[in-house]
C-alpha cells in the first residue's frame, strides 16, 4: 500500500476534526478500506443466495423435482450410487436408499433470482446513479451509506420470505440499492487517487468481491446449525454495522476540477453529459472491452451462484465445499487482483493505457485450464485448481475498470463507469439463464464447462481484439503526430527565414539612410544577432 500513501492523494481530502487527528494520507487509505468493506458486505448479501440455494428451493418449492444424493448417508461414496441416472425417474430414485427426490437448486426459477431479478435492476439503477453523479454534485459518502443501510434491511427481509414472489421482490430491491455502490465508490476514489495509482486502489477495492463471497460461504456453519434464514440475517447484521461505520467516519472528499469543492449542488447540462458518454462508448475498443468484460463477468456469476449445487450434485457435498470456498476465493482472488493492479500500473507507465489489456488477455487465457481442472478433478484437487485459477484469472476487474475510466473524460467518469457496469451486467448477468437448458441437452458438468471456462476464453478473445485496435490507433496517432511535428518545423523554418530576410532588408535600407560612420556598428550588431 506504499503507492497509496503519497502526497498525491492527500490533497483531495478535506480538513476536519477526524483528519486533524491523523495524517491525511492515512485517512485516504482509511476511506479506501471502508469503501472496500461496504463493497464486501454488498457481495456477501448478494451471494448468500447461492449458499442457501438448495434449502431455499426446497422450502419455497422453487423449480422442478429431480433425484439427488441423500445427504443423510454420509458414509456412502458419491460415485457408487445411481442418483444422477434417475433425474427424471421418481420411482427408481425413491427405491434407492442413497437417493432422495427433491427440488433442483439449478432450475430456471432459481436462475431468475440469481440473474435477471437482481442484475437487470442493478444495471439500470447503476446507470441512473452514474448520470445523477455527473448532472448533480451530490454528497456521495452520505448517499452510499444510506444505500448500504437499505440493502442491509432488504437482506434481512429475505430471511422472512415464505413465497417465491417475496424473495423475488427482495432481490429486485437489492439490485436497485447495491447498484449505487461501485459508481459512488469509483467517483470517490477518482478524486482521492491520481491516475498512476488508481489501478492499485481499484484492485484493493476489488478485494471486496472475494472477501464477501468467501464470507458468504463461511456462514455455512450458521446455516447448518440454525437454518438458511439465519444466513440472510447474519449477513444483514454485518452490512448494517459497516453502513453505520461509513456514515459516521467517512467525509466527502474535495472534487477534482470542481470550483465549489463539492459544497453546492450544481446542475450540469443533462443531455450534454449523455451525449458525451455515448460518444465515448462509440469507440470500438471500448465496446469490445465491455463485451469481453460482460462475458468474463457472466462466467464468474455462473460459478458463484451454482458452485454449491454443482459440488452437491457431482460430489455429494461431503467434501466441505463451504470450508474450501470460504478461503480459496479470498487467498487466490486478493493475490490475483493486487498483482494485476501493480503489473498494469507498471505497464501503463511504460507502454500506455493499451498495456492494461495485455493483463486482461493473459489472465483469461491462463485461468481457463485451471477452471477445467476445477470442474473435472475430484476434491480436494478441484479446489487446488480453483485456487490457481483465482490467482491467475482474478486480475481482471480492477484492471478493466481502470481501462474504461481512462478511455472516457474525467468530468464524466461517474457516468462512464455506470454505463460500463450497465453493459457488462446486462451481458454477464443473464448468461446463467442458459444453464438449465444446456444442462438438459448435455449434463450439469458439460454445461458448466461451456459457461464457466468457456466464457473466460471468449472474453480473452474480445480483450485481445480491443488491444490490437488500441495498438493500431496508437501507431496511427504517433505517425500523425510525427507528420504534424515535421510540418510545424518546416513552417517555423520558413517563418524564421522570412523574418531574417525582412530584417536584413529593413536594416540595409536604414543603413543607407544613416551616416557612413555608423555602418560598421550596424554590421557588428547584426552579426552578433546571428
From TrEMBL:
| UniProt-listed Pfam families | MFS_1
Task: Write the protein's name.
Answer: Major facilitator superfamily (MFS) profile domain-containing protein
Parts of the chain that traverse the membrane: 26-42, 108-135, 142-160, 172-193, 200-218, 230-250, 284-304, 324-345, 357-377, 383-405, 417-435, 447-470
Q: Which UniProt keywords apply?
A: Membrane, Transmembrane, Transmembrane helix, Transport
Establish whether keyword Transmembrane helix is in the entry.
yes
Got a GO cellular component term for this one? Answer: membrane
Which PROSITE patterns does this UniProt record tie to the protein? MFS
Q: Which InterPro entries match?
A: MFS (IPR011701), MFS_dom (IPR020846), MFS_spinster-like (IPR044770), MFS_trans_sf (IPR036259)
Residue span, Major facilitator superfamily (MFS) profile domain: 31-478
Write the signal peptide boundaries: none
Q: Which Gene3D superfamilies match?
A: MFS general substrate transporter like domains
Record-stated family: Belongs to the major facilitator superfamily. Spinster (TC 2.A.1.49) family.
Q: Name one GO molecular function term.
A: transmembrane transporter activity
The protein's location, in the record's own words, is: Membrane
Q: How does it sit in the membrane?
A: Multi-pass membrane protein
Amino acid at each position: 500500500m506504499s503507492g497509496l500513501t503519497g502526497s498525491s492523494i492527500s490533497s483531495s481530502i478535506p480538513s476536519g476534526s477526524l483528519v486533524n487527528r491523523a495524517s491525511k494520507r492515512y485517512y485516504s487509505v482509511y476511506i479506501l478500506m471502508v469503501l472496500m468493506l461496504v463493497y464486501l458486505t454488498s457481495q456477501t448479501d448478494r451471494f448468500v443466495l447461492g449458499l442457501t440455494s438448495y434449502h431455499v428451493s426446497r422450502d419455497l418449492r422453487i423449480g422442478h423435482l429431480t433425484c439427488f444424493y441423500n445427504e443423510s448417508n454420509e458414509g456412502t461414496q458419491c460415485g457408487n450410487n445411481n442418483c444422477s441416472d434417475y433425474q427424471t425417474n421418481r420411482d427408481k430414485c425413491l427405491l434407492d436408499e442413497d437417493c432422495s427426490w427433491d427440488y433442483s437448486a439449478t432450475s430456471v426459477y432459481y436462475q431468475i433470482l440469481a440473474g435477471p431479478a437482481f442484475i437487470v435492476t442493478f444495471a439500470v439503477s447503476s446507470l441512473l446513479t452514474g448520470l445523477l453523479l455527473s448532472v448533480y454534485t451530490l454528497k456521495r459518502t452520505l448517499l452510499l451509506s444510506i444505500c448500504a443501510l437499505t440493502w442491509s434491511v432488504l437482506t434481512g427481509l429475505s430471511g422472512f420470505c415464505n413465497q417465491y414472489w417475496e424473495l423475488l421482490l427482495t432481490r429486485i430491491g437489492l439490485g436497485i440499492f447495491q447498484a449505487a455502490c461501485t459508481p459512488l465508490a469509483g467517483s470517490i476514489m477518482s478524486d482521492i487517487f491520481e491516475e498512476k495509482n488508481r489501478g492499485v486502489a481499484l484492485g484493493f477495492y476489488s478485494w471486496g468481491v472475494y472477501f464477501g463471497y468467501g464470507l458468504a460461504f463461511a456462514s455455512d456453519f450458521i446455516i447448518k446449525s440454525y437454518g438458511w434464514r439465519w444466513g440472510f440475517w447474519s449477513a444483514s447484521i454485518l452490512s448494517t454495522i459497516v453502513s453505520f461505520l461509513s456514515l459516521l467516519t467517512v467525509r466527502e472528499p474535495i472534487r477534482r476540477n470542481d470550483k465549489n469543492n463539492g459544497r453546492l449542488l450544481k446542475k450540469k447540462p443533462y443531455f450534454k453529459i449523455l451525449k458525451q458518454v455515448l460518444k465515448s462508448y462509440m469507440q470500438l475498443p471500448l465496446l469490445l472491452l465491455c463485451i469481453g468484460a460482460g462475458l468474463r463477468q457472466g462466467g464468474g456469476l455462473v460459478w458463484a451462484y451454482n458452485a454449491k449445487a454443482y459440488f452437491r450434485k457431482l460430489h455429494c457435498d461431503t467434501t466441505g465445499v463451504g470450508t474450501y470456498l470460504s478461503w480459496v476465493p479470498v487467498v487466490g482472488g486478493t493475490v490475483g487482483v493486487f498483482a494485476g493492479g501493480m503489473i498494469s500500473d507498471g505497464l501503463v507507465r511504460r507502454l500506455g493505457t493499451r498495456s492494461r489489456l495485455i493483463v486482461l488477455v493473459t489472465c483469461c487465457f491462463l485461468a481457463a485450464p485451471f477452471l477445467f481442472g476445477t470442474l473435472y478433478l475430484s476434491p480436494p484437487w478441484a479446489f487446488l485448481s480453483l485456487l490457481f485459477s483465482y490467482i491467475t484469472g482474478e486480475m481482471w476487474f480492477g484492471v478493466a475498470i481502470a481501462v474504461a475510466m481512462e478511455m472516457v473524460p474525467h468530468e464524466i467518469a461517474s457516468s462512464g463507469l455506470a454505463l460500463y457496469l450497465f453493459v457488462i451486467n446486462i451481458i454477464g448477468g443473464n448468461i446463467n439463464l442458459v444453464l438449465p437448458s444446456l444442462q438438459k441437452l448435455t449434463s450439469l458438468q458439460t454445461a458448466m464447462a461451456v459457461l464457466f471456462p468457456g466464457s473466460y476464453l471468449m472474453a480473452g478473445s474480445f480483450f485481445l481484439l480491443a488491444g490490437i485496435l488500441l495498438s493500431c490507433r496508437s501507431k496511427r496517432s504517433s505517425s500523425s503526430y510525427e507528420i504534424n511535428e515535421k510540418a510545424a518545423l518546416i513552417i517555423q523554418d520558413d517563418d524564421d527565414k522570412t523574418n531574417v530576410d525582412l530584417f536584413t532588408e529593413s536594416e540595409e535600407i536604414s543603413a543607407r539612410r544613416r551616416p557612413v560612420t555608423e555602418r560598421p556598428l550596424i554590421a557588428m550588431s547584426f552579426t552578433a544577432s546571428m
